[in-house]
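User: My collaborator sent over this chain with a note saying "see what the structure looks like." That's all I know about it. Can you take a look?
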Amino acid sequence: QVQLVESGGGLVQPGGSLRLSCAASGSILSINTMGWYRQAPGKERELVARHLGGGNTFYADSVKGRFTISRDNAKNTVNLQTNNLEPEDTAVYYCRLTSFTDTTYNLRYLDVWGQGTLVTVSS
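Assistant: Without extra context I'll predict from the sequence alone. Here is the result:
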C-alpha cells in the first residue's frame, strides 16, 4: 500500500523560505507524477506545482519564479522549495501521487494524498 508523508511546514515571515517534502512509501521504484496542492481557509484546494513523467514540471502562475518542485529518486521524495513567501501563500499544503513505476517495472496509476502540512506566512 502506498502512503505519503509530508513535512517541512511551519511559520515563516514574509520573504522567507520553506522546503516541503513528500516521502512516498510502498513498492515504488520511482515516482512519475506527483503534485503539490494547497488549500487556504475558506478557499478551494488548488494545484501549486506538479512533477510530470519525463521530468517536466508545471507551476501555477501565482508561484512561478518563487517555487521549485524537484524529485529525489533515491529517497522516493518530491520536494517543494518555496521562496519569497507571501501572506497569500498561507495554506495547508498537500502532496498527491497519481502515477509511479513499481518494483516490477510496471507503470501504476492511483490517487493518493498526504495528510497535509501547514504553512503560515506572517510577520
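A starting point for your reply to your collaborator: The longest strand covers residues 28-39.
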